[in-house]
Amino acid sequence: MLIAGVLCVCAAVASAVFGFWSLSHTHAADPTQLALRAMAPTQFAAAVMLTAGGVVALVAATPTALVVLVVCVAGAFGTLATGSWQSARYALRREAARPKSADCGGDCAACTLSCR
C-alpha cells in the first residue's frame, strides 16, 4: 500500500499543478483556452480525492486502505471525465453561438479567407 499511496499523492500533486496552470492563463475567447480554464475546478477536486486516497493508503490497514483507495481513484477519474465532458460541451456551445464572418457568409469551406 505504500507504493499505491505515494503514487496517489504524486498524482494529486500533478492534478493540482495542472489546475493552477489552467487558472494562470489569461481569460481568452479561444474555445480551447476556455475549456482548459473550465477544467481547473475539477482538477482541484480530483487532487483532493487523490490526496485523501493516498493518505488513507499510507496510514490505514490494508483491507480498509484498498477499498478507500479504489473509491477515491474511481471518484477522481469520474470527476475528471465528467468535467472534461462538461467543459467541452460548454466550449462547443459557445463556439456555435459566435457570429460568423461577413466575408465568408458563414461558409468557410467555400471561402479562401479565414472565417475567424
UniProtKB/TrEMBL annotation:
Organism, per UniProt? Mycobacterium gastri
Superkingdom classification of source? Bacteria
Arranged from A to Z, the UniProt key words for this protein are: Membrane, Transmembrane, Transmembrane helix
Protein name (database record): Transmembrane protein
Write out the transmembrane intervals. Answer: 44-77
